[in-house]
Fold this protein.
Amino acid sequence: MKKKIPLLRLNYSKSEKNFISSGVKEILSSGFLTMSKKVEHFEDLFAKYVKTKYAVAVNSGTSALEIPLRALNVEGKSIIIPTNTFMATPLAAIHAGAKVIFSDVLENDLSINPKELEKKIMKDTVGVIPVHIGGFISPKWKEIKKICDLNNLFIIEDAAHAHGAQINNKFAGSLGLAAAFSFYPTKILTTGEGGMITTNNRNLYKKFLTLREHGKKNPSFNIHTELGYNWRLPEISGLLGIQQVKKANSIVKERRKIAALYDELLKNNSNLKLQKIPKIIKSSYYKYIVFVKSNLRDKIKKKMSQNYGIFLPGEVYSNLCHSQPVFKKNNKHVVKKGNQLFTNAKMIADRQLCLPLYPGLKNKETKYIANSLIKVLKDLE
């Protein structure tokens, strides 16, 4: 029997809705609709969750990337970024005044290739933004960090996908000089719109706060010491964040449980390849990624929706950053260092497929999705 399985469900229990409703009333009674107690509480909870000293809530994941880059004064310098990421990553660097050097990625990890990274470094290169694609931290993290340390490059983690992800029991968000998280509705934790910067560096933390508030060190006075902007987060978003962080462990646990069921159902299938996740990595499974034969993805997605009522989520990513048309008319922002083949990234962009994975997805639905995919792949042999 044909079912209908959407891209995403946002499930809030009755008690969670009551918590949010009560919190909204509290906010409306307080007279403070932005940047007050709820946002501060959200920041405190999130810093404790990822085990960093500081967390700064902002209005988007893109802002969470741009602010640290501005604080580190990257204007006129170059930043190395994997081409396999969402455009927010390079755009944040460009808006902070930097030039972007795109790098290829590793086939299984979908993250920056350390060997490529070494070759891309220029005299004016000051930092690297590794991206934890799909909630998966690169097993090559030590190698990436060693290269950065030897070349005096800072690391900003793009952890938009990686709330709760770990490597050697250390959380995403605590690995680099700073990290950026997104709370867009599709993300592991959501506030509708919003972002968070994490760091253990007190001086940077103070600068983040100043930049977020139009460059004012003290929000109560119109004395501006930095070229900041309005990157504030509303109190209602802070409230939604509190609710999400309180159940973060259960959200990630459920995502891992669903992923484990997919693994069991899809293993040993010759028509697809599963992503290998080493024991040192605990993915938070923002996406469940499989690899199919070249040029089959669109046909699979069409048959899955038409024949089985299953709508597959977007890839991470099908359109590589270096190939985006915006850079044809804005090529001054991109530095082409080394080869421009991006072999692994192109293969990944062509072959990857993501399956529905979110809290509330039932076992029978997961089985239905996996079995439907197996049938579609067999039909396309």
User: Anything to note?
Assistant: The first strand starts at residue 54 and ends at 58. Residues 248-266 form the longest helix (19 residues). The mean pLDDT is 96.
